[in-house]
Amino acid sequence: MRLRIVMPVLNEGDALARRLQALAPLRARGAELVVVDGGSTDATWAIACAHADQVRLAPRGRARQMNAGAQGCTADALLFLHADTRLPDAAGRLIARALAAAAPHPHDWGRFDVRIDSALPMLRVVEGMMNLRSRLSGIATGDQAMFVRREVFEALGGFAPIALMEDLELSARLRRRSPPACLRERVVTSGRRWEKHGVWRTILLMWRLRAAYFFGARPDALARQYGYVPTPASAPTGGPTAAVAILAKAPVAGLAKTRLIPLLGAAGAARAQRRFARRTLVTALAAAPGAVTLWCAPDPAHRFFRAVQRSTGVACLPQPDGDLGLRMGRVFDHHFAQQPHAPLLLVGTDCPVLTPAHLQQAAQALATHDVVLIPAEDGGYVLIGMRRSVPPVFEGVAWSTPQVLAQTRAQLRLAGASWLELAPLWDVDEPPDWQRLQALLHPPD
């Protein structure tokens, strides 16, 4: 049985890498992993790109994210897995066997028993009651790793686009088709919400919310009581429009990422540059704030850029001559000459922790500011955006030094431009940066 695992995520932090690494054996046996990000601004996007078969962006909210992850699926079954939940080793085989059961006990869907990962003794009682209640009621929760035949999920229209209780709502509709396969093998889910808020307080809150839902309370009102506020259904997916320009260097051994050559070798540094360029392009296209253009060095004729243009349709243009300031200035000049009223975001390829949400936030900032910056920890910046031309901003700047951001601010003041700085990120330029990235993406067991 072909299986697609759909995992909704939002700012899951460093713990996500280990969760996704744990799914590698299941993927090796043919399962497909689709991670759907709800607008993370931490390392979640970069980690997901390193470990998943597909990474998608969707408006925040588990129901909408899981529906987005199920789109275009050709697998036989879908497994909806929370980021803080671990599957048993034989999960794929167990799901296949459960859904293959013949009459008189066929199943279109099912779930696992759950164990809460906590040393609190009371949580042994809580998990036992969760499993018993689910078995008696035929209702599953997201913590129990629900799975369903793909054609059944599609026939039912997927999860209802509600802010909370989407798992209970879908369970009720699935139960009309068949009883769930209630597997006694356990998934392990985090006990952080009970530990943070207190066991009894959390139990009473969940009972109260479920009772209110049963008696017709609106899921969005319940979500606010739960402390969870998804993106409004009426919000535009990508936010304000802004074009994105990417300055990219061809992955030529000996010329690309030269400061990483002592650690990776010339060929390894070139491979790193290729991955960084592809990831930045994927990020920009996922954000979809506007048209994306790749500015290529030494020129677009390199086979890497030709392949990118064929596979994505992104326009590839030659980078102008001159130092970094001159090149960036000419990219903005070219853009505003053609589209004087369209903001532009300009990025390089050295920041693997840049996310689609960062690009969307930057585009949003240009609705009220002339310039937006994402500072870099080394004293430069990883993104600059403008809604109008500010020519002096690239003058008198000592590029590739820790003074870049401070000197840019001074130029913006002289120009009388308004600007906003978002939270700083970090580039991968030196061997310690590379080691930091590897520790983030591939933490030791």
Poorly predicted spans = 233-238
What is the correct CATH architecture of the largest domain? Alpha-Beta Complex
Question: Which CATH first-tier class of the largest domain would you pick?
Answer: Alpha Beta
Strand order of the largest sheet: 3-2-1-4-7-6-8-5
- Strand tally: 15
Using only C-alpha atoms, the radius of gyration works out to 24 Å
What's the CATH topology name of the largest domain?
Spore Coat Polysaccharide Biosynthesis Protein SpsA, Chain A
- What does the main sheet amount to? 8 strands, mixed
Gross morphology is: elongated
Tally of separate domains: 2
Question: What class do helices, strands and sheet pairing give?
Answer: alpha/beta
What's the number of helices?
17
Roughly how many Å apart are the termini? 30 Å
Superfamily (CATH H level) name of the largest domain:
Spore Coat Polysaccharide Biosynthesis Protein SpsA, Chain A
In terms of DSSP E residues, the strand content is 15-25%
Oligomeric state of the chains in view: single chain
* Overall mean confidence score, pLDDT: 91
The level of helicity is 40-55%
